[in-house]
Amino acid sequence: MFQTVAIVGATGAVGHEFISLIEQRGWQVDRYVLLASARSAGCTVRMLGHDRAVEELTESSFDGVDLALFSAGGGISKQFAPRAVAAGAVVVDNSSAFRMDPEVPLVVPEINPADAHRHRGIIANPNCSTIIMVIPVWPLHRANPVKRIVVSTYQSASGAGMRAMEELQTQTREVLDGKPAKPRVFPFQLAFNLFCHNSPIDETGYNAEEVKMIRETWKIFHDDTIGVTATCVRVPVLRAHSEAVNLTFENPITPDEVREILSKAPGVRVVDRLDPQHFPMPIEAGGIDEVLVGRIRQDISQPGSRGIDLFISGDQLRKGAALNAVQIAELLV
Predict the structure, then answer these.
(1) Among candidates 259, 230, 226, 256, which has minimal Cα distance to 146?
(2) Out of 119, 128, 197, 232, which one is annotated catalytic?
(3) Confidence tier at 123 by pLDDT (50, 70, 90)
(4) What domain range includes position 175?
(5) What is the pLDDT confidence band of residue 42, given thresholds at 50, 70 and 90?
(6) CATH number, domain at 134?
(7) How many separate domains does the chain show?
(8) Which among 119, 141, 197, 241 is annotated as catalytic?
(9) H-only helix segments in the chain
(10) Looking at residue 303, what is its pLDDT?
(11) Would you call 50 a catalytic residue per the annotation?
(12) Nearest CA among 95, 87, 86 for reference residue 8
């Protein structure tokens, strides 16, 4: 195991999840360095039974660090990840800063673990929505090539961080008290509402989140011939994203075959009961490692039994972010 581990963004939602996972997985590390902005420096974070001081992130923060887990935004990653690598650390970055860099592997350990060993100091963690989608799609793709993916996301407040989660809670109370909800983190009221994912829209009409899902899927699968289209929506759920996924396969496939494949797939839990009806829900996906998959049915609009519909839920902070990064680091040990 690594001797010294730095967590960049230690006071954020993903940072807290890093700490929780490291404790749960029993990492044997000599020293942890908890880093955040100057505003958060000096506060304490509970870790491994002790209150640990958070240090200000600076150019010299990575001296002696073997592994740096970054989750502090793309700008911070671009500025400090190269410095960490120069100091001798391996960086696992949770931002979008390096995902599409051809020199940086983009890794989901259940899918392309070998790519992690081709790093040049930085390994990128995919977008949360991409991870949650590709975990169940990959084992199906290996059994019967997927030719097209149509996905609609139902993305929770946690995808925008701790302040966004707090905003949803505050707005919910405001609305229930008959007061106007005040958007601060999001551009619109999220409580009792939903809206297009709050990322910039390009000249094609796709927003940045949708483009990430398309391009990242191609890179992770090493296959840019798969047709992928996405519609990403923010919904008033505190934690865990859900996605409706429609797949087109090269060859005929049945729902029973899909259930059999997914029942053996790593990182997947099939929740697909008809009587009584019980399918994936974010309230059950929150706090667990697996991606829940259900509503497995034939797409009757596609000829030749080549279409399948799925509904999935996965914890955005866990497998969609911190857990995937922790698993990447474990591949390197």
Answers:
(1) 226
(2) 128
(3) very high
(4) 130-316
(5) confident
(6) 3.30.360.10
(7) 2
(8) 241
(9) 13-25, 74-86, 113-116, 128-143, 162-176, 208-221, 255-263, 282-285, 323-331
(10) 94
(11) no
(12) 95
